[in-house]
Amino acid sequence: MKATIKKFLLSVSVVAGVGAISTGAALAASLTNPTIGGTSPTDYTIYDADATKTFSVAKTAANLQKVLGGDSSSPTGNVELAASSEKSGFDFSKNTTLSGTIGSKNIVISSLKSSDWSTVVAGGQTLLDTWLKANLTANGFSSVVANSSAYALAKSRFTNNIGRQRFSDPNISYVNQNDSTLEISIGLAGHLDATNLLLAGMTPSEQAILFSMRSPDKQGQPIQASEIVKVTYNGINSYRYSFTATPSGLSSPDTVKGNYEVKFSGAN
């Protein structure tokens, strides 16, 4: 029998990671005592869902438990950390966390602070450069990354138009563990098409230049990029994100939702 436990973590150190879409291994939706914390513990929103859309609900323990009960085939609702990130007065020096346990291990899943984006990760680059270059490459803009002027423009527009804030407030829809492999998967509710988020601040002519540099196989396709989560698990800090979404079948007032899934090895 494959029972899967779904729960939440705590720990610390730094690695960058990109997740993949689940192929349907036996995952369950059993979460034990999820709690919200961090240095801004009230800055979150719980979204429940019906068959077609998400909507905010009261911030109760029961609702938190309920919305985290999905998986990749049915992500249901979600909890948004740092929910005020795009509003005036947002304190980008603070974070909001979701924590608990998976198996015998603690886990903390956190929104990002401004300092996270300047953290040096893989290859001696900051998280901002690591993530943005991976994002552009995955979405067919590798020639932009290779062109220093084009990349500098994309980075400047993204940074100066609250791009970091937009991708720092993850919507967590589930956390599951496979009993057989111990692999942990986290569902991130996001925009099925994130083009407007990534290119916000660019003029039409700048966008035209960018798209002229896109690879032919990606022309006409949406830009996909999840928000980033900082995960502390088994003594290691990592940043997790994905550039591949599957339709969740849900929408919110501002977007058609996609499900991004990030995965990593769990511990005995």
The helicity comes to 10-25%
Spell the H/E element sequence. EEEEHEEEHHHHHEEHHEEEE
Number of domains: 1
Can you list the strand order of the major beta sheet? 4-3-5-8-9-13-12
Mean pLDDT: 87
The fraction of residues in strands falls at 25-35%
Query: How far apart, in Å, are the first and last alpha carbons?
Result: 18 Å
Total beta-strand segments: 13
- Number of helical elements: 8
What is the alpha-carbon Rg in Å?
18 Å
Task: Please mark out the parts with pLDDT under 50 across 5 or more consecutive residues, or reply none.
Answer: 1-25
Question: What's the story with the biggest beta sheet?
Answer: 7 strands, antiparallel
State the shape.
globular
The helix/strand class is alpha+beta
Question: Would you give an account of this structure?
Answer:
This protein is an alpha+beta fold. The chain has one domain (15-264). It contains eight helices and 13 strands. It has helices at residues 61-67, 114-117, 127-138, 142-146, 148-160, 163-166, 195-198, 204-212, and strands at 15-18, 35-37, 44-49, 54-57, 78-81, 97-102, 105-110, 171-177, 184-191, 229-233, 236-241, 245-252, 255-264. Strand 8 and strand 9 form a beta hairpin.
Layout of SSEs?
Elements (H helix, E strand, L loop, with lengths): L14 E4 L16 E3 L6 E6 L4 E4 L3 H7 L10 E4 L15 E6 L2 E6 L3 H4 L9 H12 L3 H5 L1 H13 L2 H4 L4 E7 L6 E8 L3 H4 L5 H9 L16 E5 L2 E6 L3 E8 L2 E10 L4
Parallel strand pairs: 1-11
Antiparallel strand pairs: 2-6, 3-4, 3-5, 5-8, 6-7, 7-10, 8-9, 9-13, 10-11, 12-13
